[in-house]
Write a structure and sequence with these properties.
This protein has 507 residues and is α/β, with parallel strands linked by helices. It is 41% helix and 18% strand. The longest helix is centred in the middle third of the chain and has 19 residues. The model has no long low-confidence stretch (mean pLDDT 88).
């Protein structure tokens, strides 16, 4: 597709800046593409974005998505610092599509968290830009390299740690000219994977970094992220950057200077920054499902239980009583911890699910309320969040009333605790937890009343932000239960149907 034409008043200096310009009756006629727009704006000419001609692949973008996509197409290197839920992934795909139609780029590499490769990026490509073929580079080294070498794909997707396997090949591939790093804060430390990403990104014309939380630990977190995207915006050495932003109070302790945050964000330019509150087109709350792949151990156990269900359905042995027991066991497997006899808990290594939770919590702008429907899973989940540096409080049936009161008060009224991990049945009616604007369901409950009341803890007077309700799911059963809960249908009344549906899925 050739770029549409733009007519502007004739100026001699612009002719030298735009070799493709044609003089016509006192005007200059030039292609209306992203590169031309950037040159003209830098020369003081007010021209509309090249996106005025874009069809958005049939979608109707939000106002902030238009602004975000405009920043991307106008800047070969830049940052999208929008918060979770604002549609960053779509903006990247629209920007890539627009630039490709203008023959400015050819192929894109997306580096993203493992939990988002197929369920977020893959699904979004299929939904938003289905005209492009994509490959998820996951599996053995040989499989990843073979997929990368297959030139039929337009977009390649790989996880942060896996990138080192293909880095040298990507560096040589001139047709891969767009490099998008999702959750850029994964490169906030001086590591081999950060160095590898920085080395390859220097060879690519377009490099975009996406993160809703650029400084999870300290203002200096932006240094190595900038080394990947805009190395010219930071000093040569990290120590120089630290001394500019921080002051030393002891041998091992540094504190930020008054303007440290502003200076830290200034190195991540050009950028856009919007929050969920800026999306005027959205309702006051948004519910989204997050697909997470089960571990091999989870899949094996889930398959065995499902086969047993199929046998029971065929033998007409399913009753309301044992249907509930079977459903409970299936949901425990999905979460990753199964309650066994003699108070034992079996860990099914649900690393993908816990990692997805950590990433969602880190991407949140405010405090997070995490609901876990089975108390035996709480400790494993709390350990994963704590290991990631989150300040976590846990409330279960074993938490005394006095401890609960202290935890709720600290979460709501102080800076203590970033995440409150709770069994939904322990969050009382009337409790206000509006310090959080995000609720994450680690797994579904089977009571619509409990679901509604648990969500209502952040939907109360005093809430200043749009609320986000996220459902982690891995199986057809979980998807159907969430749908029933959203539609306020009693799950208990549908247990037999759910078991029957599960059995049909296995056939």
């Amino acid at each position: 597709m050739n770029a549409p034409l733009l007519r502007i008043p004739e100026r001699d200096d612009l002719v030298s800046l735009l070799p493709g310009a044609v003089r016509a009756g006192g005007e200059l006629v030039i292609p209306h593409g992203p590169a031309e727009v950037k040159i003209l704006r830098a020369a003081g000419v007010d021209v509309p974005s090249s996106l005025v001609h874009y069809d958005w692949c049939g979608w109707q973008p939000f106002r902030i998505q238009i602004a975000t996509t405009e920043m991307l197409v106008s800047n070969p290197r830049g940052y999208v610092l929008n918060s979770m839920g604002t549609g960053k992934t779509k903006c990247v795909l629209w920007a890539f599509d627009h630039l490709r139609r203008m023959h400015a780029v050819r192929k894109m590499l997306v580096i993203a968290p493992l939990s988002t490769l197929r369920f977020v990026w893959g699904n979004e490509i299929l939904s938003t830009t289905p005209q492009y073929k994509f490959a998820v580079l996951h599996g053995s080294r040989e499989k990843r390299l073979n997929l990368l070498r297959d030139r039929q794909y337009d977009i390649y997707i790989i996880n942060h740690d896996g990138f080192k396997i293909i880095a040298s090949e990507v560096a040589k591939r001139q047709d891969i000219d767009v490099m998008c790093v999702d959750e850029l804060a994964a490169y906030r430390n001086k590591t081999d994977r950060t160095r590898t990403a920085a080395d390859v990104s220097r060879l690519k014309p377009y490099v975009w970094g996406l993160t809703g939380a650029p400084t999870p630990n300290a203002p200096t977190d932006t240094f190595y992220q900038a080394k990947v995207v805009t190395p010219h915006t930071v000093p040569k050495y990290w120590g120089w950057f630290r001394d500019e932003l921080m002051y030393r109070v002891s041998q091992f302790k540094w504190l930020p200077k008054n303007n440290a945050v502003e200076k830290a964000i200034n190195v991540m330019q050009p950028s856009v920054r919007f929050t969920l509150d800026d999306v005027m087109e959205l309702p006051e709350f948004v519910a989204r499902n997050i697909e997470v792949e089960m571990s091999d151990k989870q899949k094996m156990v889930y398959r065995d239980i499902s086969k047993m269900c199929m046998s029971m359905v065929q033998g007409k042995q399913i009753t309301a009583v044992n249907a509930g027991a079977v459903m409970t066991k299936l949901m425990q497997i999905s979460l990753g911890w199964v309650y066994a006899d003699k108070h034992r808990t079996i860990d099914l290594e649900a690393r993908n699910r816990t990692q997805a939770l950590v990433e969602l919590c880190e991407a949140s702008q405010h405090k997070v309320l995490v609901y876990v429907p089975y108390k035996h899973a709480l400790h494993g989940i709390a350990a994963a969040l704590t290991a990631a540096g989150r300040d976590v409080a846990v409330v279960s049936g074993e938490t005394s009333p006095r401890e609960r009161s202290e935890i709720f008060n600290a979460f709501q009224n102080t800076g203590q605790y970033t995440d409150l991990l709770a069994h939904p049945g322990c969050v009382a009616h009337g409790l206000t937890l509006t310090a959080a604007d995000t609720v994450i369901w680690f797994g579904p409950v089977t009571s619509s009343e409990v679901y509604e009341q648990a969500n209502a803890r952040i939907r109360r007077v005093g809430q200043k932000h749009r609320q986000l309700f996220l459902h982690l799911q891995s199986t057809p059963v979980e998807r159907r239960i969430y749908q029933l809960l959203i539609n306020k249908v009693r799950v208990q009344d549908r247990l037999l149907e759910l078991i029957e549906d599960l059995s049909r899925d296995m056939m």
